[in-house]
Design a protein that fits this description.
single chain, alpha/beta, Spore Coat Polysaccharide Biosynthesis Protein SpsA, Chain A, 7-stranded mixed β-sheet, 7 helices, disordered N terminus
Length: 243
């Protein structure tokens, strides 16, 4: 029989009272790297949903920052590329310092539909989860087969380490409550940060819930480095299995 690595028993951890979301208490972080083609549209659509939108330009040498400002976002620019994880942390620190209750994270390449922000807000009103995560696995017809297989494999592995079911761990579309954010301000710098976020939240006793979202693919070019980021994933998993 397989020896399943289990995370903490979430049911045994006292729950926090999660204050329900309203738009005045919500802000968005959009980490971006060389996204001048898409960032303006993403910001404009997000600004139709939320008043407070921050783009963290992670050392781009194109017009990502300029287009984000023109579209109405606040912009923080890293002088050099630090990785997606560090870009997200910069944004989380920014809004935490300004006392926002909820923070959205969404990608700059158009894969996440800002119009679905309402779905997360509605879910937060009927649930006491501290992290709401997009779930594309309800409709995978437009998802490439290899990506679908890898996503399901990784989600299964990560769910076991987390000790709670997370059907789409690779989705970057997320809504975080402020009392979780301080736990997420260290750790990995690149794409494995998004995986580590789920593990840390689970190990600290925070509940994660999924929100069905659209699967959108356009002409975006993945910034994931296949060898480096795959090795990073397995190193991360090995480290947390030992804890």
């Amino acid at each position: 029989m397989e020896d399943r690595q289990r995370g903490p028993d979430i049911s045994s951890v006292p729950s926090w009272t999660v204050h329900k979301a309203d738009r005045a208490t919500i802000a968005a972080v959009i980490p971006a790297y060389h996204e001048e083609k898409h960032i303006g549209d993403v910001v404009r659509r997000t600004r139709q949903q939320l008043d407070h939108v921050l783009v963290v330009d992670d050392g781009s040498n194109d017009r990502t920052a300029a287009h984000a400002r023109e579209a109405g976002a606040e912009v923080i620019v890293h002088p050099q590329n630090r990785g997606k994880g560090e870009a997200i942390r910069t944004g989380l620190r920014h809004w935490l310092d300004r006392q926002f209750t909820w923070v959205f994270i969404l990608d700059a390449d158009g894969q996440h539909r800002p119009e679905e922000i309402d779905d997360f807000i509605r879910a937060s009103m009927s649930d006491d989860a501290s992290l709401l995560l997009g779930n594309r696995m309800k409709n995978v017809s437009s998802m490439p087969l290899l990506r679908r297989m890898v996503n399901r494999y990784m989600s299964n592995k990560i769910s076991r380490v987390c000790g709670q079911e997370i059907p789409d761990t690779q989705c970057g579309y997320r809504m975080l409550h402020r009392h979780l954010i301080p736990e997420l301000l260290s750790g990995a710098n690149r794409f494995d940060y998004e995986t580590e976020m789920l593990i840390v939240a689970s190990r600290k006793g925070f509940r994660i819930e999924s929100v069905p979202i659209s699967t959108v693919y356009s002409d975006e070019v993945s910034s994931i480095h296949p060898v480096r980021d795959t090795l990073g994933f397995f190193k991360l998993m090995r480290r947390y299995r030992k804890m």
